[in-house]
C-alpha cells in the first residue's frame, strides 16, 4: 500500500502540465493530429485545475527557498502556449504565455540562485532550466514577429539562454559529483538534466547562426548520452520495475524526453526525434497508470 503523502493541487504538480503540453506540441509536429489535440485538451484542463488548487490552498508559497515548483509553472505555461499555437496556427497563445512565463522564469531562477538548501538534488535544476524554455519560445517568436518587435524579443531570449546555461551546467555537475541518493519514487528526477540538453539545442537553433547552433547541438547531445543512460537506469530500473510509490516526481521523466525530441528535430534527425517522442508518450502513459494505481504501490 502506498503511504506517500501527496501535495495539494497546484505548482507541485506542474510537471504533468509540462509533460502533457510538450507531448501535444510534438505529436502535432509529427503529424499525430488527434493524439495531439487530446493531449492539448488534457493540458488545458490541468492548468485550470492547478490554478484553482493553488488559489484554494496557497501551497507552495512564492517566497519559499525551493523554487522548483514555480519554475515548472513558468515552463508549463510557455509549453502550453506553444502547443496552442501549434494547434491553431495563431501566434497569440505562445506570445501571451511567453509574456507571462519569461519574466516569471527569470525571477524564479534568480531567487533560487540566492540559496540552495539541503543535500544536492536534481530538483534544484527546475528553477534554473526555466529561462532556457523561455529562450526557445522567445527565439521562435522572434522568427515570426515583425520588426521592431523581433529584435528585443530575441535579445531577451538570448539573455535567458545565457542565464540558464551558465548556471545550469555547473549546478548539474555539482549534483552529479555529489552522487545523490534518489528514492525510487523520485527516480523521474534523474531525467531533469537532460532537459537542458534538448532545450538548449532547440534554443541555439532559433537564436544562433546555423553552423554554430549545429555544432553546439552535436556537443550537447554527445554529453547527453551518458546522462540518458543514467536516467533510464534509475527510472526504469527503480520507479518502473518496482512500481514505486507515486509522487509528482514521476512526471520528471516526461518533459526532458520531449526536449530531446525537439532538439533532435532541430538537428534534422527526424527519426531520432520520433523515437524520443515515442519515449515521451510511453513515460506519459506510465505516469498516468501509476497515478491511477497509486493505492497499490510496492
UniProtKB/TrEMBL annotation:
Subcellular location: Membrane
Membrane topology value: Multi-pass membrane protein
Signal peptide from the UniProt entry: none
Top-level taxonomic group: Bacteria
One GO term of the biological process aspect: transmembrane transport
Residue ranges of the TM segments: 33-55, 67-89, 95-113, 122-143, 155-177, 189-208, 214-236, 248-269, 275-293
Keywords: Membrane, Transmembrane, Transmembrane helix
One Gene Ontology CC term in the entry: membrane
Primary subcellular site in the record, as a coarse category: membrane
Protein's UniProt name: Tellurite resistance protein-like permease
Organism: Corynebacterium humireducens
Lineage: Bacteria, Bacillati, Actinomycetota, Actinomycetes, Mycobacteriales
